[in-house]
Design brief:
Elements: H1 3-13, H2 22-25, H3 28-37, H4 41-52, H5 55-75, H6 88-94, H7 124-138, H8 152-165, E1 169-173, H9 179-187, E2 193-197, E3 216-220, H10 232-238, E4 247-251, H11 257-267, E5 271-274, H12 288-291, H13 309-317, H14 327-330, H15 338-341, E6 343-346, E7 351-354, H16 357-370, E8 371-376, H17 383-386, H18 406-411, E9 429-433
Parallel strand pairs: 1-2, 1-4, 2-3, 4-5
Antiparallel strand pairs: 5-9, 6-7, 8-9
Amino acid sequence: MTTANKILERAFSTRRSPHASDGAEDDGGDDESKTRKHISVAMRVTNYLTRTGYLWPILLIGLIIVIITSVTIHSRDLVCISASSSDHISRLRFFGFDGQESDFGSLGVPWCRSKHGKNVEWTSNDLLKGLEEFVPIYETRPIKNNVYGMGFDHSFGLWFITRWLKPDLMIESGAFKGHSTWVLRQAMPDTPIVSLSPRHPEKYLKKGPAYVDGNCTYFAGKDFVDFGSMDWARVMRKHGIKDRSRVLVFFDDHQNELKRLKQALKAGFKHLVFEDNYDTGTGDHYSFRQICDQFYITGGGHSCFKDSDEARMRFRRKKFWEKAVDIQELCGPGEAWWGVRGHMRDDFNHSNKAITYAEHFQNSRFVESVLDVYWELPPVAGPSLTHQTRYDPARAPSPIVEDGKYSLFRRLGLSQLEASVFNGYTQMVYLQVSEPVT
């Protein structure tokens, strides 16, 4: 081969595929033809769009379609939130910037200890079934805007407990406009009620909605008698009650709950419900939640050290929850944190007595000596569902419907209720009690 032919051969070989066979070298025209035949359709379309100038507009339209589809798919399982510009807290929770809504009990939930470790008979499934039944009942309530009264959570709790126990007589101390009387009546349509209230509910009818029950004996207004002064033996005879364990007593009177417990024991009552079971550092009366907030109880006791983990956590949560209490509010003089800054409140805070920790401790020991059952009503649903902004989940038991379960929340009918009805949760508590064992 001549020198010129060798140079020409090398030039051709550099253009061949490195994986070409010797046979292919003899038919270079066929190789070029095969390469053209295997250009993909997508490549042909891309080349055409590039030459005509349509490529970038089509890519932009495709990107927009992908974004819209992605948002639509994800939004089906997300909780609807308020679009109000003022509801910045809900928006923060929705986009996951605070992570506060799902940490129930992270600051402790002190649970009063019973004598024998007995618990309630009902289960979480019973509560769910009860919710499904109660929502349509609640929507028929005569007092739609029960300001300063019970919201949905406690209305459901009272109705559920009453329906489960099926008492022969229901007693309420504190009636306000009559909403709790109405709830008791929905639970037990034919059972008599005894209502004690300084002001008769009918007085509120002059200004707006109220409820007066036809099968209720009222000790109200000029006929008012305090629960601790009532002749209960006479009342029991009048209603034919021989077994006082068949009586349910409901307290919503903002009185020292330790005082009411002792009065109920003296009267022989066994089943008690307290509506406002205020957390430590809050409320206008001494509550069981406060009494049982002790170092020896799981979730109980506090430190007033300003650089503690608890202090930092409380400070942070104060930004999100109206009823959250920081260390400065929790602790009074001498680092007294029990009750409310070391005080035992009573009678709508008209009485405010300082007590020592030793007295506070003895109060808890007495309560434990008479408790057969202690059960705090959990919140109906997590705050990402209800949009409540008042109680701090870190001091509450896990809700019946947990955060994120919007399908269940909607199926139960809870999504159709106004958000304001979920703002009244204060750890309603049910007690079953008996005289202490000597």
